[in-house]
Structures are given as C-alpha cells and as structure tokens.
Amino acid sequence: MKIGVLGTGTVGRTMAARFAGLGHDVTIGTRDPATTAARTEPDAMGNPPFSAWAAEHPEVKLGTFAEAAVQGEIVVNATGGVGSIDALTLAGADHLRGKVLLDIANPLDFSRGFPPSLSVKDTDSLGEQIQRSFPDARVVKALNTMTAGLMADPAQLAGGEHTTFVSGNDDAAKKTVTALLESLGHDDIIDLGDITTARGTEMIMPIWLRLFGALGTPIFNIKVVR
Amino acid sequence: MKIGVLGTGTVGRTMAARFAGLGHDVTIGTRDPATTAARTEPDAMGNPPFSAWAAEHPEVKLGTFAEAAVQGEIVVNATGGVGSIDALTLAGADHLRGKVLLDIANPLDFSRGFPPSLSVKDTDSLGEQIQRSFPDARVVKALNTMTAGLMADPAQLAGGEHTTFVSGNDDAAKKTVTALLESLGHDDIIDLGDITTARGTEMIMPIWLRLFGALGTPIFNIKVVR
Q1: Where are the beta strands (DSSP E) in chain A?
Q2: pLDDT 10s per residue in chain B (226 long)?
Q3: Chain Cα centroid distance, residue B175
Q4: Which of A10, A181, A219, B197 is the most buried (most CB within 10 A)?
C-alpha cells in the first residue's frame, strides 16, 4: 500500500520505517525537504539528524507535505499537534479528499515548559479540529495514547497484550485503519465511536506523562481490563 | 479504624458499606441528615432512597459533614466534584487538620448534558484545589479512575489485576491510603507523585465515559502494562 507520513520527528520516522519494513511504499513529508535533508546536527530532543536516519532507510522517500499526501492512499498525521492544521493545509485539502487520514498526533503545548498542557481538550479535540478543517478527509484518531516505539511495534511489550483505541465518523475508514493496526501487531483494538471520542484519548496524555515520570520509561501502555 | 465518608450518593454508600463490612467504624456525612433520611423516592439517577440503603446497613451511622469529619481518622471525599469544596467547608477545616483526606471525586460538570465536561483540568485539578483550600489536610487522590463497585471491591474484575493510582504531597498519608486500598483488594497501586499528578487521573474521566459507552458496562478498569 502507498502510505504518506507527514512529519519527520521521532513519531514520523518510527512509523515510516515500520511501514516500509512491512513492504509498504512510503513517502515521508516535511515542510521543506531540502532543509530537512541538509540538517547535520541532532535536534533539540537529541534525536539524530534526518539525514542519518534517511541513510539507514533508503527505501523511504522524502518529499513535501503535499507530495506525501498525493502519494499516500493512507495519509498519517505524525506532525506536532499544535502545528498539525498548518501542516495539513500545506499537504492540501484536495490531496486529502476521500482519503483515510490517520491522526496520531497530540495537541501538546510546551510553551510553558514541562509537563506540557493541551492546546485543545474536553469540549473539543485535535481530531475534531482536523475533521472540521478537512471535511472531505476520512479522519481516524488512533495510536496517540502510547510511545512511538509501541505504536509501530506493540508486540515488544507483553506480547502486544494492551489496548489501542480508534475514533472516527467513517466506519469503512476505521476498518481500514484497524486492519493496518493489526498488521503492526495491535490485537486489542477498541472502537470508541465517532471523532468526538478523540477527546478521551487525547486527554490520556496527562496521565501518560506522569506515568512516564513515575515509571522512568516510556515503554508502557494501557490495557482496558473488562 | 474510624472512617468518615462524605457524600450519600452511590460512591459514598458503596465505600461506606465496604468499609463497614471490613469492620471499620463508619459515619457517612451529608449536608442535612434529617432531609437525607426522610427521602422515600429514588433519586434522579434511579438509585433507591437513602433510607432504604440505611435499613440494610444499620452499622453505618448518618451525620452531618462535620460530624463525619470529626468522627473519621480518615475522611473520604465522595461528594460530587463540583460541590466538593462547599461540602468540605461544611465539614470544617478544623476537623480536617492533620487528617488523611482521601479524595475520590471527579469534577464532572453535567450542566451541558452528557457526556459531562470537567470543571477543572489540565493546568489544575480538584485534588489540588482541595489541598490549597485545606492546607492542613493531608490530601491523597485515588480511586477516581474507576466505577464505585470496583473502588470498593476490585477483585470482582479479573481477580483485581488492574491498576489504581495515588497522588499526594504527604508520603505518610499515601502509605496509609495504600494500605487501606490493599485491604480492599487493590494490588497494583502506582504512586504518581505529588498532588499535581491528580490532573492526570482526573483527565481519565473523558475516556472512561467513552469506554462506558463503547463497552456497555462500567465494570472495566485500566491496567498499566509495563
């Protein structure tokens, strides 16, 4: 399948590499590919520059947000949540029309330091903002409740015995995403309902951040015991 | 142990009965005991009137918020979250001084219908508001992430194989609460840190409400797999 991944940070790289490893045809999109490709220093989080990652993943193509969106039959929003609407606008509403848009971002606002707050919450969500801004895209919120490594390869923790949520208005799009998630190793997938249920999953971030502090590792996830 | 439970709704009744069943000396507190005792009709949620419940639990004493606070060595806030500060003010700061105040409430605002929103969130929490309002109480937030039946008797689901969180500034108070929770059957208790971490647990409510809808039962809980 052709997959366009928007965002070249840790989440975008991790998902792009995993999809490529499963045989998908992946284009990773960024605002300015020349600038992204030219960086030689680690980013503010200490991640290696994109060029170092790209050298290890020659099968992943680099393009603009628009080129990744055009290329993808499924488009994955792995940009930082507070910049997602801008990035998707650059990707182009015309290029998102009718496509499954898998939104895995969280609207984390680091402007007041750590822990971040949420730029949207409770009575609205980033997932809903994206669906409203791009009404012809078929938005499915998923994977935003865990660290990137577990999004891509859940089986590395407890053999995958933990839970993944999907939210969205389009049942066929949720089926497509669910099949894709299963191919990654997610085996307890709960359909929460329409895109407004993204409020619930995005608001897991505050406890996730405190658990990260308390447990000292990001390699944990929620299992809904029932 | 002497336990004062503030609130005669489902949560307060369930916890009071469970504590009494374990042999504790329990007083349940309400704004106006005479009015509470005189009710003969089910409440808006369809719960039987207090008098019917009290007839089955003669070992639980009914008193004012203040009487329950005076009586309790541990005081449990099981009032509705948006009214908790008022109820605790009636209980009396003097009566809470130095005591462990186990806050199990959520700041759910039903004024705009269902699902409720949160009256405080993200950059503050009910737990913090209570600690600020009653600085001499030793506030511990816990149990607010699950339905009342599981708060009181977690072993009824998966033998208790799911997670309970504690947040608070006073380590000794958290130890007291942890021992009390273990006596109820909670066996995976994570200390998240100070009372600001209550932001994380209170913000679980939105996903809890959506899971309640998706699963069709309140008998579920989170397990932190790590």
Answers
A1: 2-6, 25-30, 61-64, 74-77, 100-103, 108-109, 117-118, 138-142, 164-168, 189-193, 221-225
A2: 999 999 999 999 999 999 999 999 999 999 999 999 999 899 877 889 999 999 999 999 999 999 999 999 999 999 999 999 999 999 999 999 999 999 999 999 999 999 999 999 999 999 999 999 999 999 999 999 999 999 999 999 999 999 999 999 999 999 999 999 999 999 999 999 999 999 999 999 999 999 999 999 999 999 999 9
A3: 17
A4: B197
Residue where the block lists tokens 């409203």: A132
- Predicted TM-score (pTM) of the model is 0.96
Q: Rounded distance, CA A141 to CA A102, Å? A: 6
Please name the member of B122, B193, B211 whose beta carbon is closest to the beta carbon of A206. B122
- Asked whether B147 and B155 are in contact (CB, 8 A), the reply is no
d(CA A51, CA B42): 67
Domain A2-215 fold is Rossmann fold (3.40.50)
A122 DSSP assignment: S
B192 and A200 in contact by Cβ < 8 A?
no
Domains of chain B, residue spans: 2-215
- A190 with B222: Cβ contact below 8 A: no
Between chains, do B217 and A226 touch, taking CB under 8 Å as contact?
Answer: yes
Per DSSP, chain A holds a count of helices (H) and strands (E) of 11, 11
What residue in B sits closest to A145 (Cα-Cα)?
Answer: B207
**Cα–Cα distance between B77 and B60 in angstroms, integer?**
16
| A111: contact with B, CB 8 A cutoff | no
The beta strand positions in chain B, using DSSP E, are 2-6, 25-30, 61-64, 74-77, 100-103, 108-109, 117-118, 138-142, 164-168, 189-193, 221-225
Chain A's closest residue to B145, CA to CA, is A207
